[in-house]
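G., before I forget:
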Amino acid sequence: MDNDGRRTYVPGDVERKWQERWEAEGTNAFTTDELRSPENPFYQLMMFPYPSAEGLHVGNIYAFTGADVHGRFHRLQGKTVFEPIGFDAFGIHSENFALKVGVHPMDLIPKNVANFTRQLRRIGGMFDWDHTVDTTDPAYYKWTQWVFVQLFRAGLAERRDGAVNWCPSCKTVLANEQVIAGLCERCDTPVEQRNLPQWYFRITDYAQRLLDNLETLDWSETTRKAQQNWIGRSEGGELRFPVLDAGGSDTEAQVHVFTTRPDTIFGATYMVLAPEHPLVDAVTTPDHRAEVEAYQAEMRKLDLVARQKTDKEKTGVFTGGFCRNPATGEPIQVWIADYVLMDYGTGAIMAVPGHDERDFEFATKFELPIVRVVAPEDADASTPLEEAYIGPGRLVNSGRFDDMDVEAGKSAIIAWLEDEGLGESRINYRLHDWCISRQRYWGPPIPVIYCDACGPVAVPEEDLPVVLPRVEDFKPDDSGVSPLARVAEWYETTCPECGEAARRETDVSDTFLDSSWYFLRYPNTDFDDKALDAGITGTWLPVDSYIGGNEHAVLHLMYSRFITMALKDLGHLDFEEPYKQFRAHGLIIREGAKMSKSKGNVIVPDPIIEEFGADTFRTYLMFLGPYEEGGDYQDEGIYGPFGFLKRVFDTAHQVVAAEAAGDAAADAAPDGDVERKLHQTIRQVSEQVPALGFNTSIAALMEYLNTVRAGGRSAVRAEVEPMIPMIAPFAPHLAEELWEALGHEASIFDGANWPEFDAAKAVENTVTVAVQVNGKVRGTIEVAAEADQERAEALARAEENVTRHLEGVTVRRVIYVPNRLLNFVVG
RNA sequence: GCCGGGAUGGCGGAAUCGGUAGACGCGGCGGACUCAAAAUCCGCUUCCUGCAAAGGAGUGAGGGUUCGAGUCCCUCUCCCGGCACCA
């Protein structure tokens, strides 16, 4: 109480009260029966956090609050909203931290999870704590392993030998998606190439489907484009160039190249193989062998960053070998060079220096022939090329294809090579298969047993989970195998097929496998005998709204699409896209940079919530800027939303106090202007919240409150009550408190309490119309809404300042936009 | 280099279909209440000229379309994100 006898807003008290009540009454939780037959299901998903030792950071809270606001809005509109949360607790991140502090992850993670749980409750998310997942719980990873087994049986998981990305610091292989510009995404160490047999998921089989479906998804543009770029489809041809023997005749061997410019084949004056290409040995002549092998050794030593630098001069050596250009019939030199990569296309190219910048640079440096085979329209084809010509044009120096347009040339030359048996059209993708093996400890063991007689065998489903044993010495090493390979009593087993002695796979799977299906599990956590209940899964999925960070655009969001498609093809799901709608939120910036420990600009949420309350912190975060673009965290800015919520509290209690005192005026009809503003606000907020326009919605609510309290006037119930549900998504505890104070017994979130918009009540009777003379505002007039031009013009001409500007000039034209402006065009 | 998103007061940011640029908030200035302070409340706050009335300029730069452009078109600069010797 303050000295007026009215209550003061103490956020901590209000929030504790409602968090306890939501918990006790199960306000946000679903029973299995409710999950089975919801009235109007809406699945609101957010990206489950990795439970770090530091606790929730502002970025987490920003992400969760945005999703929670959206979920709560839909609930207030009468939907049955399922909004689960969980913990992505396996992985290198936790393991490295455990190593650093010398605590076993099995002891560390539960503490972090407990702390995160406390913090997540404190921020007031509408989480269903009865349906959480923890990826490190055997009851969860049993089914992660089950997913692997399904893919293995379908031939979508396979063990392959080949070049892999090896992080020398994390001491494990990484998927392509986890290598950012040649660096490990976890620790920024330059990644090396190693040859190791690994488990792969054949995501490339799904490349075209992953690409095509993007068109149909309601996703943030930036995320869709990131996936498109990552899949990287290019159309072209795979062409074959016969390798020549010392006498210049064709041998059996052929170099396969992928090109997007088959039309330029007559200009292919040399070939380049990647240094690691398997044919290098065969084409190298004895007199070039020493040089070639030295070059290969040099390339092997380089990490990915050094190798893929594009600003350095290209290097390479001649192998001494030749191929025949099937178009010209001429022998052309075969080189190896750093600018051709083994893991794209076929690892070999036909070099067309006349029409490819890289080939031009290389040919110039090593004095290799440059031939023009494309000429732009109206250009002299005999002009020597001073740089590679990439543009459109017609073919020249191309035999019977001369004068053909390049586009027509592409198909004509492919068709001809196909007849010759030397090529065909081909589509190539940048996307690589997903390497899921990790030579680490903290993950679900890959459920495979190696038997000398039967080969790799999947662990039978009834034997799942393959439990990760507690191992004290879990430090990774450079051996290329997991620490589990040190635990003989664990990996020694018998073959499930023949019963002979056999050995378990000792690698664990990628953390991204854990998160590739967690959203499928949430509504199914009540079942321990199956991963997915068909009825419940069909009811709740695909996810209605997914909100999260764009840093997972090509990681989690690509993998989970693939796993969903695969599970659909295997009959476990009846949909193939997991998320109907995905929105990427922006980043919070403070002092000009992303918050990071090294920059020292991190905001620790706990003390702020302590001082201002979760409601204020939530509202402030949502008010910072457009949610999809992020915002600039200014420490002083929190006072705006704090003052707003205090005023809301005060205004509602003013009404309650007036009613209690028997003041009939408190129940009076709303003021006309206020009611109009109310309905305009309802319209605006109802449109903007589902579009994630949180900052403008809060601004509209502030504006409304300013109208209600204008000049210090007293509010009436009809003006205040409809505002409460509109602030509820942002400030749920305060909304509950005030809803109760206004006499409602049930939770504001139980029931469709969103206020109804009445268009008739939002209409303005009079409007301000700007009066312009030649496009410059010279005054304003007040007219009835939809007033006709005659009336408006008369009023405008009566306006003193307007009259002055119309003196002595001729009005040539009058433009009238009802309710907006009147423009006199004079000359 | 290619793809996507941006650039608006001292600051964060608004502006529906091309129609009064700067809503809302922070900060600042002034005032009320107070012995005083905090809290709260009220008013002002794009820049320039002006006592005022008013006038001029103004949404990264330059051009264009239009009665009218932050918004549409062309050219350019810079910033953020994705991809990148990708053949």
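Chain A has 29 helices and 35 strands. The radius of gyration of chain A is 34 Å.

More on Monday.
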